[in-house]
Design goal:
Elements lengths: L2 H16 L1 H4 L2 E3 L3 H8 L8 H9 E4 L12 E2 L2 H13 L9 E2 L2 E9 L2 E7 L9 E4 L7 E4 L2 H14 L2 E4 L3 E4 L1 H11 L7
Antiparallel strand pairs: 1-2, 3-5, 4-5, 5-6, 6-7, 7-8, 9-10
Helix pairs in contact: 1-6, 6-7
Length: 192
């Protein structure tokens, strides 16, 4: 089992014990054949980590009342394609394409217009940095080294109390603890 899947399972374990309704909203994972059928018309290759993520689970049904921190909705693969078309590619007739360091982006998390995406290109790659795209579509920035480092950070934040429950419903953050864990898994990124 890879470090990514181990981290995802750690997060799911915490959610099942602390947010069972939200953990039940995750959709079953997709097969490689289903993923290939959904993405067959993409003009670029997705990183292997994204395939692994969608084999693990195909997003969540729940778009409102996200009880997961950070409060981002994990998009089903079909929805990720739509979000990418609407927000990143915007209009095929224009030259405006949202990019990071010249690379196209593929979204997989959304929070009311704030998006997390992976950088994609024409070559197969194992991992890609996670790029934060603010709802104003300006100044994208690298927020995690990879999907694996993102999920390892989140998993350890849950397990150590950096992310914690308030009134057994809402998840809050101890910024000092979470920043230390962020730097543990993403040492070359200065901001957290």
């Amino acid at each position: 089992m890879s470090n990514l899947t181990i981290a995802l399972d750690r997060i799911m374990n915490w959610l099942q014990h602390n947010q069972p309704n939200f953990s039940a909203s995750f959709l079953p994972g997709l097969t490689d054949e289903q993923i290939m059928q959904i993405i067959e018309y993409l003009p670029y290759s997705l990183p292997e980590e994204i395939y692994e993520l969608y084999r693990w689970r195909n997003g969540t049904r729940q778009r409102q009342e996200i009880l997961f921190y950070p409060s981002m909705a994990f998009l089903p693969l079909e929805d990720a394609l739509v979000v990418g078309k609407e927000t990143i590619d915007l209009d095929e007739r224009t030259e405006y394409k949202l990019r990071f360091e010249g690379q196209r982006l593929f979204p997989f998390l959304d929070n009311e217009g704030d998006i997390c995406a992976v950088a994609v290109n024409n070559k197969k790659q194992k991992a890609s940095p996670i790029i934060s795209i603010p709802s104003e579509y300006n100044e994208c920035h690298k927020c995690y080294n990879s999907l694996t480092s993102m999920m390892q950070t989140i998993a350890e934040c849950y397990e150590t109390g950096a992310y914690y429950l308030v009134k057994e419903v809402f998840v809050e953050e101890d910024k000092n603890k979470s920043l230390q864990l962020f730097h543990k898994y993403n040492p070359e990124i200065l901001e957290g």
